[in-house]
Amino acid sequence: MNLGIHIVKVIEFITTDWDAKKTIGMMIVTLLGLMVNAIFPLIALIILVFVDMRFGIRKHIKKKRDAGEKVHERSIRNLNSGGMRRTFSKMGDYLFLIIGIVVFEVFVLRHLGVNVERGNLTISTFTIFLLCLIEVKSIDENFMEIRGISILKSISNFFFKKDILKDINNEDNRRA
């Protein structure tokens, strides 16, 4: 697919027939077309951000209860604007980062002839995957504050039992 021709058509469209709705619509469609490989990880990232927001609200309610305040769990008064602002600011930051990487990937690297794809894995999907890991860690930290246990540590202990690791270390120490 020759993206250069499409870019020239978009630029010609913008310069010859300036209509704000059409131009913004074309820009959005072009951007979504460029991000088609990363749409499912992007949806997963958005879901994780909202799950993190929900656990952040629960953590806020728990802190209020621990401080001795009477809290009604389903009340809208439990939401503070700072937490909501941080969530949407985080989503905006992630979106701008992803758009920047997609633009760099498509317009710079592909123009220079650099192969940026390894199967379906591109730089943008890898970046979204890293952002998803950051969100999972944030959810784990909020869950740890709420329930007192870490999901990630529980999973790692299940797969890599500490007793087995201790036995391996003891055998290594005996051999030395």
Overview of this protein structure:
The termini are far apart. The protein has 176 residues and is mainly α. It folds into two domains: 34 residues; 138 residues, no CATH class.
Structural class: mainly alpha
Question: What is the overall number of helices?
Answer: 7
Rg calc = 23 Å
Q: State mean pLDDT (0 to 100 scale).
A: 76
Main sheet overview: none
Shape verdict: flat
Instruction: Give the fraction of residues assigned to helices.
Output: over 70%
* Domain tally: 2
Straight-line distance between termini: 61 Å
Strand and helix order: HHHHHHH
What fraction strand?
A: under 5%
Number of strands: 0
| Unreliable segments of 5+ consecutive residues | none
Write the layout of secondary structure elements.
Blueprint: H1 3-16, H2 20-34, H3 39-66, H4 81-109, H5 123-147, H6 151-159, H7 162-175
Helix pairs in contact: 3-4, 3-5, 4-5
Keywords:
flat, single chain, 176 residues, mainly alpha, 2 domains
What's a concise summary of this model?
The protein has 176 residues and is mainly alpha-helical.
